[in-house]
Task: structure prediction
Amino acid sequence: MENKTVIDHAERAVTFHFPPQRIISLCPSLTDTLFALGLKEKIVGRTQFCIHPAEQVKNVRRVGGTKQIKMDVIKELQPDLIIAEKEENPKEMVEALAERYPVYVTDVENYTDALRMIRDLGQITGTEDAAQHIITRIETNFASLKPTRDVRVAYLIWQKPYMAAGNHTYIHSLLEKCGFVNVFRDFPGRYPTVMEADLREEAPDFIFLSSEPFPFKETHRNVFHEQFPDSVPLLVDGEMFSWYGVRMIKAALYFNTLIHTIEQQRK
Result:
């Protein structure tokens, strides 16, 4: 093994033993992708929210959540590389870890960033061919996407208060790829808090109620249907819209189905 120094997505120099043999992942979509790269035997730690691939993560030690981790468990696992995500993991937590271990930070705000992230994960783990295979499958599936036009949507991720996906987010990037117009794209902040009055004023054609991080259900859809009669509330799969990485292969197919459903409802 040799020491390798790379620049991560936060413009930090990270030096680690290459190829890494004991990897901890602190973001669910990164964990999912690392397994897809064939690193099953090298992933020693993950968060409680890293639920995919279900059968394989069961055998990987939990180190806490994405916002708060157990330093004693990290120490036990003796990682030679920790992979974190800028939006998912607090800066203070990442900095505390980086004082003791090599920490590579990813940063994904759009579709292009997501493909770069997959490529870079392949480079830092010595799985470039597997990474390129995943990227090719994603690009092929997204090339088959049939975008809609002039469909105005609000994508809600939380309630009490309502929070929406705004501009400069991966979710917004995928909404655009699908041809949707994000009614909250010009609101301040990446995930703006919005009021009922905002939803009524913007009057989106559809209100997307995401399955995560807040788990919107049918009961919520019914409430939205009553509160906002000028918009159609629709439950959507949050993993397809927010899990960048290998899950993007399935996401493109999901979006085609979603677009078809919406266009049928508009007729």
User: Anything to note?
Assistant: The chain has eleven helices and 13 strands. The two ends are 61 Å apart (CA to CA).
